[in-house]
Amino acid sequence: MPEPVLHVSDLVAGYGRQPVLHGLSLHVDPAEVLGLIGPNGHGKTTLFRAISGLIPAWQGAVRFLGEDITGLRTPLIAERGLVHVPQGNHLYPDMTVLENLHLGAYAPRPRKEWRNTLEQVFALFPRLAERKSQRCRTLSGGERQMVAIGCGLMGQPKLLILDEPTLGLSPRLKGELRDAIGEIIASGVQLIIVEQDPEFLRRLTTRQVFVEEGLTRDDFVSGSLEHGKIMEMYFGMD
Ligand SMILES: Nc1ncnc2c1ncn2[C@@H]1O[C@H](COP(=O)(O)OP(=O)(O)OP(=O)(O)O)[C@@H](O)[C@H]1O
Ligand SMILES: [Mg+2]
Question: Are 46 and 60 in contact (CB under 8 A)?
Answer without folding.
Answer: no
